[in-house]
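Encode chain A's predicted structure.
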Amino acid sequence: MNLQENINRIKEVMGLDDLEYTEPNSDLEWGEAERYIDHEDVNKRIGWTKKEWMDKIKDGKVIRYSDIPKLENVSDVSEFESLLPEKIERFIKAISERKLEMPIVVKFPNNVYDLVAGNTRLIGALKSGYNPKIWLIEL
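Encoded structure for chain A:
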């Protein structure tokens, strides 16, 4: 049984149509956000400190994936099975519990949307037929 079949079976057995979403763990995701301090693309460089990151996360808002015109820095859905096995396992556990931490997206002033954290969660949710909720930070 592949991932999609497992998820569909869980949804069917539990009679579920949607997931419960939790706010991102800003402290844990700081490691992902740090990549933007010296990002190779100067348009995506953000000189934030950890405290500034924590403050920005608090100002985020929830949107659906389909509300983003084009998202950069995200894997293709077909690559899900090649992502880190431990992250795939965490995703499967989260889906089976119907509780998913929202991926984090930053919207830059030039209207570019970039996935900061939650690639496996996002791709897994899309592959599973969800239009997942996203935690959006606008700069």
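The mean pLDDT is 89.
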